[in-house]
Amino acid sequence: MMQDELVRKRNYEVTTPTPQLTPTPTRQPVVNSRLRLSGFEKTLMVTGVVLIVALMVSIVNTKFEIGRSQRKLQDTTSQTTELKTHNQNLKQELDSNENDAIAKMVKQDQLSINNGQVRDVTR
């Protein structure tokens, strides 16, 4: 009996095959070497490139216009300064001529000038 039981255990152990795992081949996805684009995607890309180029041209043009405006402003500022200087010189010359004319009239009429009684008059 013991032997029968031992034989059964042995047969049982021998008769149960262990399942072997066979590697199943994995399917590799098919990779196309070229990416196909739809008509909409192509149109969108061309529109984007045209828009970028237009913006670049616009930026360069704007910088050019800013430089030109700065030069005009500088020219106008220098002309304004020159005119102010010229006007100041003319005012000084006019004041000098007025004083000379007054002094000449005083001498001609044999009068005297009392500077304490002279007042400045502004125009």
TrEMBL record:
Record key words, sorted: Membrane, Transmembrane, Transmembrane helix
Transmembrane segments: 43-62
Listed Low complexity bias regions: 15-28
Highest rank taxon of the organism: Bacteria
Record carries keyword Transmembrane helix: yes
Biased composition (Basic and acidic residues): 1-12
Region described as Disordered: spans on this chain: 1-28, 69-90
Start-end of Polar residues biased regions: 75-90
Identification of the protein by name: Cell division protein FtsL
Naturally occurring in which organism (per UniProt): Fructilactobacillus florum 8D
